[in-house]
Amino acid sequence: MGNKKNELTKIVGSSNVFDDPAILENYSKDSSFCSPMIPRLLVKVNNVNEVQKIVKWANKTNTPLIPVSSGPPHYKGDTVASVPEAVIIDLSGMKKIISINCQHRICIVEPGVTYGELQKALAKEGLTLSTSMAPRATKSVITSILEAEPRLNGLSQWEFFDPLRCMEVVWGDGNRMFTGEAAQGPLDLEKQWASQKWQVAGNGPFSTDFFRMLTMSQGTMGIVAWASLKCEILPTIHKMFFVPAQRPEQLNDFVRRVVRLRFSDELMVVNGFYLASLLGENAKEVKQLKAELPAWVALVGILGRKLLPEERLESQQLDIADIAQQFGLRMTPSLPGISGEKVLNKLINPSDEKCWKETAKGAFEDIFFLTTLDKTTMFIHMAHMMAEKAGYPASDIGVYIQPKHRGSCYHLEFNLPYNPDCTKSTQTAKDFFKKASKEFSDMGAYFSRPYGIWSRLQLNKDAQSTMILKDLKGIFDPNNIMNPGKLAV
Amino acid sequence: MALDKEKYQAFEDIVGKRNISQDPGVLETYRCIAQQSSAHYGPYVDHMTPLPQAVILPGSTEEVQNIIKLCNKYKIQFKASTTFWSAMGFIGSDYAVQIDMRRMKYLEIDEKNQMAIIEPHAIGAVVQAEAMKVGLNLNVPGVGCSSSVLASTSGWVGFGPSSYFMGCAGENLLGAEWVLPDGRIMRTGSLGAGAGWFCGEGPGPSARGIARGFAGSAGTMGICCRLAIRLHPWPGPANFPTEGTIPAYRAVLPDNFKTYTLCFPSWDAYAQAFNLFFENQDILYLGHRQFNMFGRDAKGAMVNILTDPDKQFCDLPELMKDPYIKKQTELMKIDIQVVIAGMTKRNMEYKEKAIDKILELTGGWKNEMMLKPEIVNWVLMYLLRLGHKNLNYTFCGAYEGNYGMSPNHFVTAPLMEEASEIKDKWAKKYTSIADTGGDSDMGSISIIGGGGATGWEFFVNFDAYDKDSIKGTKEFIDSTQEWMFKKGLGVDMGRWNADLRKSDGKNYSQEEHDAMYIKMPQPMFLTYNWKIRNVFNPNNLTGSYYRTLTPEKLKTD
Question: With contacts defined as CB-CB under 8 Å, which chain A residues touch B410?
Fold first, then answer.
């Protein structure tokens, strides 16, 4: 390994290669239930040339590479090596916001750029980027989008992976190229801009969607050096409304109708505990809020941009309120003691470095998958039944339902908080996580992002798809150096 | 090489006697004039696609799979098509079978989940009619409503007038069942997981990426047998109302549907208006510069002919002199047709206000003539159903999409007058193309959902039965391509397929593709296509519409 360290030092310099056991220990595990594995080295990169050299070197030396773009803590097990002798390739130092084109509303960012950094830069240009719910401060924008984390504006996603457009990638075999329309110009962004090409269309080139080889791949196919992202005009007015209910199924027809008529800019359903976890500053507050908040609530965001902002907001507000009434519900601008503004600010702005889901009990595990709206209630009932059986407090399960891809499918998330200092609490949560994952899978949950134990649950359902995935991996990463062991391939 | 009796029998065993043919008369109907793109009777009218060895009509995914396995066993090329809109659906080799998918026409509308599950021969009009019964609609792409929805979704590009509101076909693609060229069945996303049709992505990387990118793979990555598409709101009646006399069929829709021809004082204002529509993505139901396909000088008169069953094409010269029509035509020199659809009364009011505001900000106006009720109702029928593809051929019996220019409207719009002038001069100097007033540019406000990239092309009308007209049109198109290269506009839309089938109707060889593609700015991606083909199409049986570059040709450090 000393030899490997020397070789990596030649590429990135001695100050960017680490073998200190204390540092490596941090990368050997995360906050999920995944098995720990200590990597051999950590290497920090600053540009795509270094990335390419390292990937080529890894191919020659048969060294597993684990790309990591977000800062710690990590939660899904995908940044922890599944095999020994791995090198962590840390891209969090690649922090350039390469360009912001207001005319086409396209920004280009490197993998280390976080939401806080990007939104600040975009706001100066009168733009914003859609976001996942309260992304943690160190979360890489690119990773969050590549891994298809649900976005609050799922109703604006014409393409499943919006706002992702073009990328530069170093594939597992060490080759480097652009994707989408950018692949049809020179391998030089400045030259492309000079001919008025702004990396707007992400599909292709031609009949192959190369970007789809990288999405939801957990770093198993290649390393992204930049991505172009579709931005939106910064709202001039933005409000959040609430539609409370006693049971989740009471909200289904309301949500379906709002989606059908293309109303709202943010739309999601959460249970009281989930909302309390988001809003509470500490465990006591979470507990208190949980007692006060409605059992279930649909969060409805409406905004106005430059063109007739008040008119748009008012028109939609009244129409959505009418829909709520049609289904025996009521839309309100606030909940007891909680304003729409407070919730909106929590939702769309980055949280602390630690994920807000840790506030309730100190640790958590999520189970999430895709399904259709009509099936969400069935899964929720099953979760509660199984929790009772497993001795896990059902009332502590947070639930989040987010329309994706314009409502074609729904992200259903169960948040399972537990006390990491209590062995029993941890073990109960772990057992419940495993059993519930298996049960949901059997019931038809679709784990599109198959982290950890879900990869086998999911990929075992269709041998042909798994074979095809293995074939694809063989094309782009023939020596299997990119995060080997993930996705069960 | 000919398909011998034993092999023919093997195919017949799969589909039955009634669903396979080697009758020369039948086979001859499965040939197409080789052209560069869609149904345009292009300059290569002398050449036809090859005669297939047999035509086979499968009835299920399992039959398709067995046919493909047999093709692999005997190394016979194959190509599937359903509504046969263009040359890309036809074979490119003398030793090939044509697979006609018209027996597979399953259609299911899932209202709750806003999707349709379709087989190849569910055409746009049928899917639309069924969807509208439950308040839904689909993106009918430019190919029109008589074509296979599955084909444009899986096999080609699939944008059209409604793509701004409903997305391009690729964006609407959910789960799909696809028989790969090696005979394996790929079920994408949630479908492979047995969870339903609602998602076409994953698990993990999305395998659909090998078969459907910006465009589909034109039948080269196997045969898509069934897929789901996302449907979109239709706030109109359950049955699309149709009245009038051919060809002036009209749709009288409720007040929550309006269509306007929006006009602008300059191309700069036009581009600014587009941006406002893109920034505010919920205003239009549809946006298309449609009737300019008849040309800047003739469009007003043509609209009057087509909306009045008593008028004929021979009335065109007189109508073009009519002072009112002449003035109105002049006023819609820089125009676009839009449809707005209110989901509620308030929503309609907001959309009307938004249109007016955009016109105010850009100095635009609504064309008065196009507000006449008989024209409004005809335009609604035309654009919402997209069933008037025959009108593309009205002038001379043939046309070619030309100057398919950059999707960046800020680049393209300022060049529009220069482009129009080139065409105008050519049309006045030579008789090979129709002289319709230079600007005959038409196309969609956006080729992607929500806007951001335009899809424009100049219509060049010519006589497909006149060699001089064909020759002159080819020269014109060559010259405009030169102009486009000079302006940095890239490859003309009409030439998108020029590298995929030779002018004699046959496939390109790998050597020919290598020689072409090595010159691309980033040829690397084509070597991955080569590897993908080698894995999923090891016998290379599906023709040359899949762009590949032999990896050894690319020297890397």
Answer: 103, 196
